[in-house]
Amino acid sequence: MILSGVISKASGMTIMAFAEQYLFKPMGIIDYKWTVDPAGHGMTGGSFYIRPADMVKLGQLVRVMGFGRKTAYF
Fold first, then answer.
1. Is residue 68 a contact partner of residue 61, using CB atoms and an 8 Å limit?
2. Under 8 Å CB-to-CB from 39, ≥6 apart: which residues?
């Protein structure tokens, strides 16, 4: 949860908007759900739901250390 605060502060975006723009859309991931706290902040401590096929995409991204076909994600 600390990392989401760092990303939000540095980018000026919520963690949900940041992930959508820079991670999910480029990877073709469109069907996901964040659980939010009462203030509307995305919960990043395991309250995220995604299709198994898209989870494989994220696993592959970690496996190749953040480098996609044309994009370095992290």
1. yes
2. none
In this model, does residue 46 exceed pLDDT 90? no
Q: What is the DSSP code (8-state) at residue 49?
A: E
**Overall domain count for the chain:** 1
User: What is this structure's pTM?
Assistant: 0.76
* CA 74 centroid distance within chain: 11
Which two structure tokens, joined as six digits, stand for 8? 């939000």
Residue 72 lies in a domain: no
CA 56 to CA 37: how far, in whole Å? 27
Cβ(20)–Cβ(28) below 8 Å: no
Domain enclosing residue 54, as ranges: 2-63
